[in-house]
Design a protein that fits this description.
Length: 179
């Protein structure tokens, strides 16, 4: 539909998204929280594709999206009684990898936002863990930000970067202003 007043082109409608991202080719990726898919709009705004559930991977309430070179990082919030996860999609060969655990026996509860800095460090906020987790490119936990607790192992405590009480950390994109 052509909007005559504003001269804009309506490409998609009724999307519930918490963020968009651009790949290296300037294609636009929009995760749709309600429809459990990701819209991909080409950089000329002419063609729309979708990343959807298939036999290999389950997209479940996609909440945030980022890129690490040729890899797409998609945060799945998960359903009400289900833990979330992060999915790495290698654009080169469409290989998928689902990441549920972030350190030894610790698993993501409700990861919400993801951000990749200029050094390719990956920041993930988990709203139920009340932490911001910092990973390297191989998704090995380097550090985390959040409150130290007595029931944590010593090796996990040593990875704490800032001992601070966080409550449902969501949008972490503003971190780039401080890096």
């Amino acid at each position: 539909n052509k909007d005559k007043k504003k001269n804009n082109l309506t490409l998609i409608q009724n999307v519930k998204s918490y963020g968009v991202s651009l790949d290296q080719n300037k294609n636009i990726y929009i995760p749709d929280f309600k429809k459990n898919l990701v819209f991909v709009i080409d950089n000329y705004h002419k063609k729309i594709n979708t990343l959807e559930n298939n036999n290999d991977i389950l997209i479940s309430n996609p909440h945030s999206i980022a890129f690490l070179e040729k890899k797409l990082l998609l945060v799945n919030l998960g359903k009400k009684n289900q833990n979330g996860n992060i999915i790495l999609i290698n654009e080169k060969d469409n290989n998928y990898k689902k990441i549920k655990n972030f350190y030894k026996n610790k698993s993501f509860k409700k990861p919400a936002s993801i951000f990749v800095d200029q050094n390719n460090l990956i920041y993930v906020s988990d709203v139920f863990e009340n932490k911001i987790l910092i990973f390297n490119e191989e998704f090995s936990l380097l550090n985390w930000i959040g409150l130290l607790e007595q029931n944590m192992t010593d090796d996990f405590k040593k990875k704490n970067l800032f001992d601070i009480k966080l409550k449902n950390p969501h949008g972490i994109y503003k971190l780039k202003e401080f890096l």
